[in-house]
Amino acid sequence: MVQSNDDDMMGLALAEAKTALEQGVFPVGAVLSAGSRILGRSHKTMVSNHLNHAEMNLFHQVFRGDYIFSRNDDITLYTTLEPCIMCFGTMLHLPITRLVFAMPDAYGGCAHVKLENSPPRHLSRAVEIVGGVRRQEASALFAAFLDTTTEEFWLTGGASHFQAAVRANR
Ligand SMILES: [Zn+2]
């Protein structure tokens, strides 16, 4: 269910994504909140080690050392693109109880992966998921990136399902 501050929080995530775009980086931004309190915000960074996703950068920023958060803290992850399997799996290990994303990822998005066959640890990790919040704005940033990137992966049609979805949103 969409909540009253989802639009504003996603606005902060979109601003992070814009920062990435300005640096020539695939524009994903992410924010963590506990109720109305912002815990942190981040975006994808230039390092090409596949660990530099906006969500992972944010998790390292917020959940460092002996953090005191629990699953009762009403922590929401906002991200401008549906999380991949790494970020979604990491989210399940962290005390995050709600996920809100903007653009669905037809190529690598894992928000709707079925956990029914997973081992007990993950069966109990129910997370409320809301997709499509400010989707057009997120998609416009991806379109701007695809128009300007010089990365071989994208120029040769990489993640074709995702590129097609961005084109369909224009
Ligand atoms: Zn990811």
From TrEMBL:
<protein>
    <submittedName>
        <fullName>tRNA(Adenine34) deaminase</fullName>
    </submittedName>
</protein>
<dbReference type="GO" id="GO:0002100">
    <property type="term" value="P:tRNA wobble adenosine to inosine editing"/>
</dbReference>
<feature type="domain" description="CMP/dCMP-type deaminase">
    <location>
        <begin position="4"/>
        <end position="121"/>
    </location>
</feature>
<dbReference type="GO" id="GO:0052717">
    <property type="term" value="F:tRNA-specific adenosine-34 deaminase activity"/>
</dbReference>
<dbReference type="GO" id="GO:0046872">
    <property type="term" value="F:metal ion binding"/>
</dbReference>
<dbReference type="InterPro" id="IPR016193">
    <property type="entry name" value="Cytidine_deaminase-like"/>
</dbReference>
<dbReference type="Pfam" id="PF00383">
    <property type="entry name" value="dCMP_cyt_deam_1"/>
</dbReference>
<dbReference type="InterPro" id="IPR002125">
    <property type="entry name" value="CMP_dCMP_dom"/>
</dbReference>
